[in-house]
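ingest -> validate -> predict -> emit
validate: passed (alphabet ok, no gaps, 600 aa)
predict: started
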Amino acid sequence: MKRLIILAATLIAGLSACDSLLDKEPLDRVTQFDYFKTRSDLELFSNPFYDNLLDKTPYDEQNDLLVQMTLSDVLYGGDKRTVPNTGGGWSWGNLRRINTLLEYVDQCEDKKAVTEYTALAKFFRAAFYFDKVKRFGDVPWYEVQLGSADEALYKPRDSRELIMTNMIKDIDEAINSGGLTEGISTYRVNKWAALALKARFCLFEGTYRKYHGINLEGHDYTYYLEEAAKAAKTIIDEGPYKLYSTKTPDKDYMMLFAQENASTEEYILAIRNSYEAQVYHNATAYTLLPTQGRPGYTRKFINMYLKKDGTAFTDQEGWQTLPFTEEVKDRDPRLAQSIRTPGYKRIGAKRVQGPDLGVTITGYQPIKFVQDTTASGGQIDRNDRSTCDMPVFRYAEVLLNYAEAKAELGTLTQNDLAITVNEIRSRVGMRGLDMNEANKNIDWYLESKEYGYPNVTGANKGVILEIRRERAVELIQEGFRLQDLYRWKAGYCIDQAISGMYFPGPGEYKLAGKETADLILYAAGSTKPQGGEGVSVYELGSDIILSEGNKGYVYYHKTVKNLRTRFNEERDYLYPIPSGERSLNPNLTQNPGWSDGLDF
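emit:
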């Protein structure tokens, strides 16, 4: 056994020696033919796939709904986004490992294991290429292990259609091979995880082609939307999953993400974290410590949450200037389970806490994934000490993927909504979505140029917008938003307002909902008031910046407003290929709009 571990480590280290298939010194083929002989060999070799290919971060990249002190290059735009020489997501070491396993798996004497790990490798190859297509569009397709002398190292990019066709072939073989269990296996890939992956990348591709007007030889956007719908519906009809619920609508959504162990009811695949095993992430510290970028939701996003009765918040008079304590009243219960609102008590705590403007730049302080103070041996609030499991695929996303695919196809029915969106809303006690009503009375906020998606058209416009609302609210901080904007050709959302809560002027505020104030704002040049215990005191114009001087929306990034560059519709939906990779392989073309100084 010791020999196997050492050999596996040697192979993995060797295969990791260069990140790119297009590096100067591609690796020779693995020659240890005495390996890959047992199930244990295959397991040891494939375990790194989980660590290297599954997204383990508990929060989104910065986007129009969630921002930090320092804006990302994507939000800043323009010259902030440059062509890297290396890196930039153009890494291929994981694919080499996958193809190595597929090349040698047949050497295993356990033929059942061969079937299982072939299916697993094809799942991960589809996942690998999904990431590459999202980022770069056309990329080279490799399905064999390459050696140093292989001319294929210098091939041009293959078409998007070829990549997607091969991804579907891989994932279908994984699903239909019998190599993936149909039982619940929360931390290992099963048949349902493969179907969830297929639904996710087919929805991405279908909507991307639809909204970007991409017509390629082969399949059109409807094919991918139909495949997404079929994959999701198979999970709905045949899978062992349901939405997590203890019939406590004012807590269930929050607890789903804060509890130590993943819900086996809702989490199809999760990343395991553990205090005992010392495997952590940073979700709790991210929202509680001022050193973590002070993340906050934007007011644009807060406005998306419906009122408890199912009506739009932005349909009421004076919604623009409602103070925090009023704007969060009688809203979709997920709002109070996603940010601190008046009366908020941390899980297991008795003390009422309001939003802390010292750790959130918008005032809307996230609480998703924030655990009990006793978690992680009482060290949960330290950097990188969070231990709640992270979702990779959960059932709620599958439901939303199905509803969106059907809506974009024009085949959505009210029954489809009943088993998807309305199931999700029911968990938190919200009124269901009526398809006819949504299409007849389109929410002006969601279709506006200032706040929404003005490029959505057609008979299902209203319900598509409502599904997008639901997706934003339900999946916030789960890594979807930026890529959703890209596939919807909604990069203009990046340029929409990134302000925070509204303050009518200097004065005392009761953000926690207590009888006494917990926040004092005072005008620049005036005497700083004395705040008591638990009271934060900030000077307007320096500590807290408002959009209109002594009143308005919290606007931390006001000083860089004129330095930001608008989203480049001709360039920014795809990332650039590193210039160093193109220098090594002149057959690689650069993505449109990106200048890397090369004349080929």
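Residues 502-563 form one domain.
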